[in-house]
């Protein structure tokens, strides 16, 4: 039809990009801009007309944006040609902090979806006649968009995502915040169709979760949760764990923890042992002694325990190993305390009374792994620090722990040429 081709009669947009005609400049949520960044001294914190000025003027501008863009999506004859440019503008208003603007955007967006659904009834006939029910694990407190809205986003996602992912790492704070807020809205609409775009989404989340702006990180965590909700864990775990293996990072661990938090228990459970084993590998759990890194590593364990609960028994030894490493390496007392609390939660999930029972249950394998490299220990070796934690916190007499580690009585093995160290007597 003329509407779909964009060649029918009727009013045309004045410029090649309707956003510029509407706002007069690149808005803070515009996509794919190539404006070179100014010098640091010239950089405004929120440098766009729609994000600065008195509050009532900013609200008026944002309300006008939602109203005009919604009107274009409903009535402009060329709208099919500009869906990928107009949809992000309207969807950005769904997360506006002003309820009035939010409600206006929600109403307009639903009207757009229903109208498009009606215009494409033949194309959507099977999906309308045999529509599956709402997924049982659909995020609570979220209203599922109508089919027309979901289809519009899915069909334009490949055009929107590259520019959006570029803007999430923009030099302007306002652009990063609004772009990061838009990503979970798109993923909520795309549902399992996001799988085909997962690589670019995860790569962006890994980078954006290093942002100094808490709002950006919060939105990215929400996006990662939705990835866990709608994408098969077999798919997202393969990509995330592979990226962590190549370059372990605090941001990558945060993405992993958020994705697991959004994943249903029954879907995550078959992969629990593999996740725990990977986290316990030295290249991840000993990759950094930075407290932020260890905090995110702890968050992964906490998420696994809270989601899988009693199922954690299959990976209990590996999770205990990770927690032992965090206690040994953390410099912040609060972080060590949180790791100890998580040990207690893991113990309860396994049906034992506390962390000392957990130590006793796994003492043999833990000591075997920790002492395997004792000939190479230095004062700063993680394994030596772990061994010290076992001695001080396991609840067993130190002599008994040492004798279990090195059954030969009377001495602790030492490197060749070094003096033998007598075993402690208490």
TrEMBL record:
An annotated GO BP: cilium movement
Q: Which residues fall in a compositionally biased region of kind Low complexity?
A: 417-426
The record, for Pfam families, names:
HEAT_DAAF5, TPR_DNAAF5
Q: Where is the Dynein axonemal assembly factor 5 HEAT-repeat domain?
A: 137-329
Origin: domain of life: Eukaryota
The record ties this protein, via Gene3D superfamilies, to: Leucine-rich Repeat Variant
GO molecular function (one): dynein intermediate chain binding
Extract one GO cellular component term from the record. Answer: cytoplasm
> Could you tell me which residues belong to the region Disordered?
405-426
Domain Dynein axonemal assembly factor 5 TPR repeats, chain residue ranges per copy: 60-127
Q: What is this protein called?
A: Dynein assembly factor 5, axonemal
Species whose genome carries this gene:
Macaca fascicularis
């Amino acid at each position: 039809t003329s509407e779909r081709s964009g060649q029918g009669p009727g009013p045309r947009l004045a410029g090649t990009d309707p956003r510029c005609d509407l706002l007069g400049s690149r808005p803070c949520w515009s996509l794919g801009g190539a404006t070179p960044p100014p010098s640091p001294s010239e950089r405004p914190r929120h440098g766009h007309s729609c994000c600065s000025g008195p509050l009532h003027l900013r609200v008026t501008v944002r309300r006008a944006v939602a109203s005009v863009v919604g009107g274009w999506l409903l009535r402009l004859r060329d709208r099919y040609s500009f869906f990928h440019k107009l949809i992000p503008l309207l969807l950005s208003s769904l997360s506006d902090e002003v309820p009035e603007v939010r409600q206006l955007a929600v109403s307009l967006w639903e009207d757009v979806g229903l109208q498009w659904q009606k215009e494409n009834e033949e194309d959507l006939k099977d999906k309308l006649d045999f529509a599956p029910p709402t997924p049982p694990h659909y995020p609570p407190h979220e209203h599922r968009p109508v089919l027309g809205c979901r289809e519009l986003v899915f069909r334009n996602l490949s055009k929107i995502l590259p520019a959006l992912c570029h803007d999430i790492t923009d030099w302007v704070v306002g652009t990063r915040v609004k772009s990061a807020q838009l990503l979970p809205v798109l993923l909520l609409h795309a549902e399992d169709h996001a799988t085909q775009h997962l690589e670019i989404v995860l790569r962006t989340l890994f980078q954006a979760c290093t942002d100094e702006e808490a709002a950006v990180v919060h939105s990215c965590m929400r996006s990662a949760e939705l990835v866990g909700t709608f994408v098969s864990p077999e798919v997202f775990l393969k990509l995330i764990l592979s990226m962590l293996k190549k370059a372990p990072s605090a941001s990558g661990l945060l993405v992993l923890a958020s994705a697991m938090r959004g994943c249903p228990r029954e879907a995550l459970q078959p992969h629990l042992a593999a996740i725990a084993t990977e986290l316990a590998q030295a290249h991840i759990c000993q990759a950094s002694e930075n407290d932020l890194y260890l905090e995110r590593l702890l968050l992964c364990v906490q998420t696994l325990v809270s989601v899988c609960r009693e199922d954690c028994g299959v990976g209990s030894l590996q999770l205990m190993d990770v927690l032992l490493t965090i206690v040994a390496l953390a410099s912040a007392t609060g972080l060590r305390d949180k790791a100890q609390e998580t040990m207690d939660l893991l113990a309860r999930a396994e049906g034992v009374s506390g962390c000392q029972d957990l130590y006793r249950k796994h003492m043999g394998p833990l000591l075997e792994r920790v002492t395997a490299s004792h000939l190479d220990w230095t004062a700063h070796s993680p394994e030596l620090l772990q061994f010290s934690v076992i001695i001080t916190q396991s609840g067993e007499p130190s002599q008994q722990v040492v004798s279990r580690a090195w059954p030969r009585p009377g001495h602790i093995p030492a490197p060749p040429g070094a003096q033998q160290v007598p075993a402690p007597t208490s």
